[in-house]
Amino acid sequence: MRVPVDSCDFSLETYDSLVEKEPVKVAVQRAGKYIFPMLKDIFAVCEEQPEIMVSPWSPPEYMKTNGQRQRGGHLKREYYPDWAEYICQYILALQAEGFPVKRMSIQNEANAVQKWDSCLYSAEEEREFLKTALYPALKKHGLDKIEIYIWDHNKERLYERAVETIDSETEKMITGMAFHWYSGDHFEEMELVRKRFPGLKLILSESCLEYCKFRSDDVTEGAFSLLHELIGDLNHGMSMFHDWNLCLDEEGGPNYVGNYCHAPCLFHKGKKRLLPQPTLDCFYHISHYLRPGSVRIAHSVYTDKIESVAYKNTDGSIILVLLNRTEKQLPVNLRLHGQTGTLNVLPQSVTTCTIEYE
Questions:
Q1: Taking a C-beta distance cutoff of 8 angstroms, is the pair 157, 182 a contact?
Q2: Per-residue pLDDT tens for 177-196?
Q3: Which residues, at least 6 apart from 278, have a Cβ–Cβ distance to it below 8 Å?
Q4: CA distances from 293 to 50, 239, 240, 272 (A)
Q5: How far apart are CA 299 and CA 53, in angstroms?
Q6: Rounded to two decimals, what is the model's pTM?
């Protein structure tokens, strides 16, 4: 699960940090009121302990060149050590509550000027902040085992960012690249990164259906677009994905700047009802059947009208996910180890096949 460090657009408001000496206490108090209780409920019902990823949206305003959390700006170099310590204290607060932080990104959407909490990092700035401040601070607090992901933004600049940020010093500090889906497929970018940096992990750190792009009263198109994204990413080396957000209200908020989005679950505040959405069913095909430790296996298809990905789980079972976004039923012939089988993939559907054999 991905948790923001400090406020983001889905906070009730941007966090107040006028008191420069203790702004992290404000952030932890707010998280303790709104985020930690939900995490505790989630941990209570999960059979396997979830892993937490943290991502900052913006440092406090006094640390930034534009003097505000919103609308970009840069982290002032004199505040590199303070902001690194801030992030560490937030991670320590999460861990004190029993939430294991497994991974982090340095900055959410490092190249975006947003009307909500945002901060710009050039490749040089991200590299220098990591080397001179963040990694030393993590090491000082015994947090240097946390996986560090760079970029955390759209895929079309994934390779460029990797080349500009990773050097002989940062290579040992960086676990992988985090990316978002908002600017299109760009699966070729993933291929370039994998060829140049085969040891890097590639994770989709944010995907959601923004109502500014997808209709709120018909999420079928958006749900299938997300499945297209996930299947393509899996076929090009992605090892993990996060949606954003897990649960929102019936309007797609709360969001203090009106950036309303869809979610796998909506909660109707007036009726006090949880409303599972089609995207939840779509994600189930990926997250339920492809188990941790599974590996992608080679496959081929006869038409681009069917999108597919195949994995082998640790128990030996083979999982095949098929997406048919057309309005026609399409036949599929499966052939594996000399045996064949036939099925029809229904129009506008996702189908998962579990293949078990001795």
A1: no
A2: 999 999 999 999 999 999 99
A3: 219, 220, 223
A4: 15, 10, 11, 38
A5: 32
A6: 0.95
